[in-house]
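Structure, all two chains, one model.
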Amino acid sequence: MTRPWPGALAWNLVLWALAAVAMTPLCRVVVRAFQSTDGSLTLDHFAALWRDGSALGWLVNSAFLASAQTVLVMLSSSMGGYALAKHRFAGKRIVLGLMAVTVLLPFQVTLPSLYELMNRLGWVGGYRAILIPGAVSVMGMILYRQAMLTIPDELLDAARIDGAGEFRIWWTVCLPIVRPMTGALALLSFLGAWNAYLWPAIILQDESTFTLPVGLANLSSMPGAAPGALMAATLISIAPVIALFAVGQSELLDGLAVGAVKG
Amino acid sequence: MMSTPPRRRRPRRIAAAPYLFLSPFLVIFGLFLAYPLLRSIWMGFHRMIGGADATFVGLDNYRFLLRDRMFWLALANTVGFTVAFVALQIPASIALAVLLDRRRIRGRGLLRFAFFSTYLVGPVFAAVIFSGILGAPRGCINGIASRFAGHAVTLPWLTDPRLAMASVLLAALWIGIGFGVVYFAAALRGVDPAQHDAAAVDGAGPWRRFWHVTLPALRPAVAFMAMVGAVAGLQLFELPYVLFSGAGPGNAAMTLVMYLFVTGFQAGDFGYASAIGWTLVGVVALPALAIGVIARARRGGWAS
């Protein structure tokens, strides 16, 4: 089974070359963000963003919205997943059925009716119109339920005998056990919220409330946009999530591996 | 996915607890998903333009869809994109994942992260990046092609209707293969190495081992990926919308979700937009059902 070295070397070269091709668009962003028109290294584009201030505001807005939404999704999904995995109650089959039906539903079908509802509530333009509907995730509930099904009932019963309430069991017994799942799901929720465009673009009216995707789409559609500043803004939009995933990579891959093996 | 939990003892003394735990989900799900869904069915049967009072029009919106050339264009663009995307993403991802899985690959973790990092770039940001790469005349793809061809290549990637969807596909694959590689690399960990060794002992070469050992073991992962890819592909919106600041040359990049968005939020026709939305639901449900049924028939219970 041992392969001669020239073969292994060739496959290494092929893979590294393909990785270089995949990275080229990102490298181009970095280069253009730091390059002045005559080709020399410059921080002017970032300085321009700083002076203008709007892109930095979008960065703060995006960070706040994505973090808040991730926390809300994790809380609601782990609570719901715990009830569905470890409790018997009337209507459980209905809830599971509803989740199965809606997990693949294209949410865009509700855009007009949801907008009408937000308009009636007076929420258009505000972050609650994004955060509250986005606070639950059917996929998150399914994943938490699956993870918590593997926790032995004896463990929970022992905690109950010790006098722990259901809330404490959820928080101190179940959540620590499903921690790997929590890490993977948190990263993916954050990524989804960070990159979300369609609903925020509909809801957010004032430029100072924009998120990075909404602001950048707006900026790039303007004919007079400076390409260097656009690339600098793109860089500050993608660098945070890439850094976050570089740190959390192993957690995510373990979570993915479990999901991929289970199918 | 939805099997009933293995359970030996019924929990005592708690009746309200599961409902309390589910209440955040149930309230938000009911108010912001279930209600808007039902309301959008109702909207699809009404004419409601620019916030004017709704008038019941029966099936008029759906009847109009049948004669609406823009709708058929959007449907054809969306389905064509999705078929091409899934057909290219899955083989390319499997090939890269299998390469990554070979022995003696140096810097495997770094390579995996390099491929995966493209998936982290949101569609809006990817569109901004690719508009610079593809945009004529100084676009970087044309520059590279010119160097190889020896003469100036000036393909109008973003201005020719025939190339518009190819540009979108290029950006979509750049994002999608990043996820596919990591997903299939994880799925490959579930392939039993003993089977490979047994096949190798029987004299099967690398190709035969791939076809007869690796690929069958990856079948559930392929079915999952095809379904996720199809569902995401049919919801294509941000990439073309930002790449072209709209529907592109000759509406060549118009998609179903874009048509829904334009109809509802630029033309203000909520009734018609809802009808487009329910057509989208039908189009998304079909491949999901088909792939689910095929996989279930092949394996006897895919979602268990």
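Chain A has a mean pLDDT of 91.
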